């Protein structure tokens, strides 16, 4: 089965192609046959196109014009033409999977995209304005280029649909519940993938494990995973909630927002910008939303960068503590995402607070750029894993599983 995966961002679109020939490979993450990325340049009419294949072919071009559909058509054209050709024609693609950030309360599982589903994703753009519209754009681009090929929506919120009401419902007026204002959680595709892989690495049954998965990148979230189900998470109604992030503030006193509206004449638009784009590491350090640059500035004596690091670590430790309370114990702490995978300092600091639980990191392993391994000492009471999250592959897996299920149902009829 040939599966195309689209992962939409607010200013870019990642695309990759997988071929699954045997169900036994589902437990492994193969290299894509082909990978592409469209970067839309802010304040410019055009896009950067990047393509590479498993055999080493590379294409980099700048395409003039502001038509996103034309940019999609061009990058899909490179699948079957030129040096990056990996299939003879686009009709060989069996299914297209899309990462959709917000599925609301209605979409708790992976679904085949119909007109009703597409309209629902569009309506939910009010909850994910930076991402859901981009997903719809990708769906419509595929309709134009590949016709009636089966398209599948994999929702970032689905994994957290198992949250108990006590964790999901905010203590505001009950009308909020009726309006759909609740904790949805995000990064679910990553949290689910890492939970499953953690069980494989440990040689344990996922249904017996208590895990805290730490997805730490420009966006950050934690999930408490008990017996394979998400029972608590840090992101909430929107991705702003929870941990301190690259440019998002995370959890703050909502009274601050009332104060800014009343005393500082903030508009809704300015609040949105400040909370999402000018806070977090960037806002505190004044250096960057990239933790690597903040660390470099900290090491040069920059006091604001040091403060940003200290707040980041404090919030991370506090978040892990809240997940511990939900789980009532811990078998493994899992780090993933750009920061979680690449920052030994963050892994060390985040874990140091839990030495009283018997958690011990192997300092040597922690410094060796570990990927998909256990970095705890042999006598640690809690395992500590570093996992390379592969959301695109997880989406391809879910597309394959959904199609197999559809096939079996049709066959049984």
TrEMBL record:
<comment type="subunit">
    <text>Homodimer.</text>
</comment>
<comment type="similarity">
    <text>Belongs to the acetokinase family.</text>
</comment>
<feature type="binding site">
    <location>
        <position position="99"/>
    </location>
    <ligand>
        <name>substrate</name>
    </ligand>
</feature>
<keyword id="KW-0418">Kinase</keyword>
<feature type="binding site">
    <location>
        <position position="14"/>
    </location>
    <ligand>
        <name>ATP</name>
    </ligand>
</feature>
<dbReference type="InterPro" id="IPR000890">
    <property type="entry name" value="Aliphatic_acid_kin_short-chain"/>
</dbReference>
<dbReference type="Pfam" id="PF00871">
    <property type="entry name" value="Acetate_kinase"/>
</dbReference>
<keyword id="KW-0460">Magnesium</keyword>
<feature type="binding site">
    <location>
        <begin position="290"/>
        <end position="292"/>
    </location>
    <ligand>
        <name>ATP</name>
    </ligand>
</feature>
<feature type="binding site">
    <location>
        <begin position="215"/>
        <end position="219"/>
    </location>
    <ligand>
        <name>ATP</name>
    </ligand>
</feature>
<keyword id="KW-0963">Cytoplasm</keyword>
<keyword id="KW-0547">Nucleotide-binding</keyword>
<feature type="site" description="Transition state stabilizer">
    <location>
        <position position="248"/>
    </location>
</feature>
<dbReference type="InterPro" id="IPR043129">
    <property type="entry name" value="ATPase_NBD"/>
</dbReference>
<feature type="binding site">
    <location>
        <position position="7"/>
    </location>
    <ligand>
        <name>Mg(2+)</name>
    </ligand>
</feature>
<keyword id="KW-0067">ATP-binding</keyword>
<dbReference type="InterPro" id="IPR004372">
    <property type="entry name" value="Ac/propionate_kinase"/>
</dbReference>
<feature type="site" description="Transition state stabilizer">
    <location>
        <position position="187"/>
    </location>
</feature>
<comment type="function">
    <text>Catalyzes the formation of acetyl phosphate from acetate and ATP. Can also catalyze the reverse reaction.</text>
</comment>
<dbReference type="InterPro" id="IPR023865">
    <property type="entry name" value="Aliphatic_acid_kinase_CS"/>
</dbReference>
<feature type="binding site">
    <location>
        <position position="391"/>
    </location>
    <ligand>
        <name>Mg(2+)</name>
    </ligand>
</feature>
<dbReference type="GO" id="GO:0016301">
    <property type="term" value="F:kinase activity"/>
</dbReference>
<keyword id="KW-0479">Metal-binding</keyword>
<protein>
    <recommendedName>
        <fullName>Acetate kinase</fullName>
        <ecNumber>2.7.2.1</ecNumber>
    </recommendedName>
</protein>
<keyword id="KW-0808">Transferase</keyword>
<comment type="pathway">
    <text>Metabolic intermediate biosynthesis; acetyl-CoA biosynthesis; acetyl-CoA from acetate: step 1/2.</text>
</comment>
<feature type="active site" description="Proton donor/acceptor">
    <location>
        <position position="156"/>
    </location>
</feature>
């Amino acid at each position: 089965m040939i599966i195309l995966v689209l992962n939409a961002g607010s200013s870019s679109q990642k695309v990759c192609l997988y071929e699954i020939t045997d169900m036994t490979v589902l437990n492994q993450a193969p290299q894509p046959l082909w990978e592409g990325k469209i970067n839309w340049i802010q304040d410019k009419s055009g896009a950067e196109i990047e393509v590479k294949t498993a055999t080493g072919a590379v294409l980099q071009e700048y395409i003039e014009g502001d038509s996103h559909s034309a940019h999609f058509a061009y990058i899909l054209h490179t699948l079957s033409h030129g040096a990056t050709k990996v299939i003879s024609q686009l009709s060989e693609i069996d299914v297209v999977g899309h990462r959709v950030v917000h599925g609301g309360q209605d979409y708790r599982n992976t679904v085949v995209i119909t007109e009703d589903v597409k309209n629902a994703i569009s309506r939910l753009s009010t909850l994910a304005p930076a991402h859901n519209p981009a997903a719809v754009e990708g769906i419509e681009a595929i309709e134009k280029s590949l016709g009636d090929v089966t398209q599948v929506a994999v929702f970032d919120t689905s994994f957290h649909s198992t949250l108990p009401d006590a964790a999901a419902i905010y203590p505001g007026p009950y009308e909020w519940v009726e309006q759909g204002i609740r904790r949805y959680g995000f990064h679910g595709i990553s949290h689910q993938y890492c939970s499953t892989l953690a069980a494989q690495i440990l040689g344990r049954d996922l249904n017996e494990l208590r895990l805290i998965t730490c997805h730490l990148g420009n966006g950050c979230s934690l999930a408490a995973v008990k017996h394979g189900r998400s029972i608590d998470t840090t992101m909430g109604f929107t991705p702003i909630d929870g941990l301190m992030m690259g440019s998002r503030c995370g959890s703050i006193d909502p009274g601050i927002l009332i104060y800014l509206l009343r005393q500082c004449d903030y508009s809704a638009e300015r609040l949105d910008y400040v909370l999402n784009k000018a806070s977090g590491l960037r806002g505190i350090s004044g250096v960057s939303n990239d933790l690597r640059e903040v660390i470099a500035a900290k090491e040069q004596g920059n006091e604001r960068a040091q403060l940003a690091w200290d707040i980041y670590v404090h919030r991370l430790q506090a978040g892990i503590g809240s997940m511990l309370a939900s789980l009532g114990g811990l078998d493994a702490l899992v780090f993933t995402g750009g920061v979680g995978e690449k920052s030994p300092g963050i892994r060390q600091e985040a874990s140091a607070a839990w030495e009283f639980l018997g958690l011990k990191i192997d300092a040597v392993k922690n410094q060796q750029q570990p990927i998909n391994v256990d970095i705890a000492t042999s006598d640690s009471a809690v395992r500590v894993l570093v996992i390379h999250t592969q959301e695109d592959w997880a989406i391809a897996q879910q597309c394959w599983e959904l199609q197999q299920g559809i096939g079996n149902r049709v066959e049984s009829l």
